[in-house]
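Fold these two proteins, one after the other.
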Amino acid sequence: METFGRGCLYCIFGVIVLLFFAFITQSTIHIPWFIFIPLVFLAFWAASKNNKDH
């Protein structure tokens, strides 16, 4: 369960960074699904790797 929570936290942090970047540049950001889905898997993979180290 820790991995799921940490993975969600990483995804939320990434969305906040993108929203901040869009706000600063006053533009919209479009991320295609074939880029977004691997990024979500990458976030959960990083969370699982971080969890195994502890």
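Now the second one:
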Amino acid sequence: MVLHINPLNGIFIGAFIGFLLSLPIGLSLAFWLSQIKLRALTVLGAFLGALIGFCIIYASIGTLLFDPPPIASNPGAAFFGTILFCPNVALAFAIVADVLIANRSTRASRRATHK
């Protein structure tokens, strides 16, 4: 099995633009919902989740696994699929990263309270 990545394909361009537009949504939600002091690690987990979501969409719609793309795939489907799927996967990975970091050290999960 050979991975086919064609950056000049309309499906790749639509998926990549959708990925770029979904990053601010997913990363800002991850930062806002984080309950630990080291929010950068949660945002990094969200970025990895969004990247995995992009790979999933491009593998299923685009030419990553199939040499000729599937019949019903087009750049619009790749764009909207990516822009709707990547923030969800990013938020799921951010929550998992947040929980894993909070379980490893209780000091990282304590936030200062303002009185």
